[in-house]
Amino acid sequence: MSLILSSAPHIKTKDTTQRLMLNVIISLLPCVAAGVYYFGLQAAIVLAVAVVSAVAAELVWQVLAHQKVRVYDLSAAVTGLLIGLIVPPAAPWWMVAIGSVFAIIVVKQLFGGIGDNFLNPALTARAVLLASWPAYMTAGYNVGRFDAVTGATPLLSGTASTMDLLMGNVTGAIGETCKIAILLGLVYLLVTRTIRWEIPVFTVASAVVLGAILGMDPVSVVLSGGLLFGAVYMATDYVTSPMTRGGQIIYAIGIGALIVLIRKFGDYPEGVTYAILLMNICAPLLDRMIPEKVYGYKKAKKEAKA
Amino acid sequence: MKATFHGGVHPAHSSKRPTQSLAIRDFVSDTVQIVMNMNIGAPSAPCVQKGDHVKLGQVIGEPVGFLGIPVHASVSGEVVSVEPLPYLSEAPAMCVTIRNDFKDEWVELHPLGNVETVDPALIIPAIKNAGICGMGGASFPTHVKLSIKPEQKCDYILANGAECETHLTADHRLMLENSTRIVDGLRAVMRAVGCPQGVIGIEDNKPDAIEAMEKACQGREGVRVQVLKTKYPQGGEKQLIEAITGRQVPTGGLPIGCGCIVVNVGTCAAIADALIDGKPLVERITTVTGAVRNPANLRLRIGTNVDDIIGECGGYSVEPGKIFFGGAMTGLCLPHANLPIAKSTNGIVVMTREQAKTDEEDPCIRCGKCGEVCPIGLKPLKIKLAADADNIEAAKKLHVMDCTLCGSCSFICPARRHLTAAFKVAKQKIAAQAKKGGSGK
After folding, report:
1. CA A182 from centroid of its chain's CA atoms
2. Which residue in A134, B121, B230, B271 has the fewest CB atoms around it within 10 Å?
3. If you measure CA to CA, which chain A residue comes closest to B414?
4. With an 8 Å Cβ cutoff, are A3 and B381 in contact?
């Protein structure tokens, strides 16, 4: 009889990295369903291409670089799925594939792989696609059940009803239109304790408050464009958001404020992507700014005074 | 109101289910192997020889040094060996092995009587003579803990009945079956140090124990029960103090630094036995659970062999993969089962091969959960980076010495990083360095 000797603790939570990533994928299923429902087969193809190319890129990289293959942790699948959900339904498949490969290879692996990238891979991919193929990224939202009217998302035209905005019966990126689906996903992420409530709530609240100050309609601030999707799925990325609660709150307030400022004063309404990427860069700094509260230090000072 | 602390985790509370409703029963084995270094501090010096006949409760090891306490024969019978034998640490430990004659013939006992009327000055020496050390796992000599300096003031004696560790139900059963003795012991400690308040902290997953202890507190001076939220490590000394008093133990200091002394409920009962009956510490309650056929709460003589105990519990239910003393969050692994229990052995847990598998480390995903659950407010992932780089100075700056090795960060880590293990090593290195530096000067 040989016994294993190991250092305590001898039990671990069931929530592994893989499980948390699976939670994110499960939470995205309503968005996937809504996207396919509204935009049809084309959206399904975009999503499939995005996921498969992201996973394939990670697998190939890890094999070629003689690294441990970690595709099973599902993080590449999440990145791929997110990319698929934030591009227009009519995005050409090759562009989506380029986005996924770029996200995995350049943004994630070149910086050291999972946990070491400082920018959100999916959002960075979107920013790069937007800069490279602006025509494909700003048009092509009107497919599936919609009449092929080129151009404006509701953010630009400002014509959709609140109900349409909630249900997703509007033009937009595949996964961003149906707010009900996003909220369902949020509930699942919170219940499974995959994410904390602070980032999504403070992002939205900050956007609403600053929007109101600047005379914008709070309902349309929240429900139009990619704000809600970004607040729930992009801003909450573990790797690129602050780890301290205080840091998370400042980070989220910054994202909400930047979104509104870019929407109000920027030349085009692509606020969410840049707001989150900018705050990603600030995340490590924010963590450092939050004062530590280590047990036994503060009280010791107080007692010394008394 | 339920008191609690910052951070913490909720590990497998269901692990207590197999034994929580089982009454304590006695088990006495043929031989006991009594280790001389059961307490923190220098090992006791054996004062019996092979062939001697010893009575139950007879001193077989004399205290050595400031932290020393005597060791007593836990059975009556013949000393069969006095020699160093392999124990938990790498170096063999001096042991006295006694063959039990099952007569339980006690040495002459000197009871001090009622804890409320005994001269307070006699209490601490009696505790020392009874060989009592912390029975919640730490093994710190109780008389040293209670010997506070004249300038120190103790506002609270906290009886620790939280039992927040997984699997363990020994304290729970003791609180149910021996509640009066626990209050007696608590009162004795309060009188010994001149402390007006005694609080028994119990987690709210033990409502029956809370009820029993509240009943036992009725009509007793200055004692009460404080219900605590069920959360690990609620029974950690620092967390218990924070939850009940709102105070914090100053960094690097002892609980008395914030006017508190924490004593485990099992230790309280042992103190009461020492004063009221004059009996030294020769037995304790131990939960035996996990992959054994009949899990149990056993009253065991100190030095009882683990193999014998497992046998008493019907043997292994499947092939064991890991055995540890204590609960799953902080338990200490045994290399094999042919080892004796000590005064601090509150549990023996057997894990299956499947449960015992150790995870390989995955890369940190910076989820920050380790920092959220740390009851000390540390940043485990940063300390781990420093420890992995063997950057002891950086680890020190990140307060690794304040880490209590509770294991919460390792428990919660989705990437299965071996955080606590790394901190344990880092702390040992820093302590060794300090020792070297100190003697060098």
Report:
1. 11
2. B121
3. A16
4. no
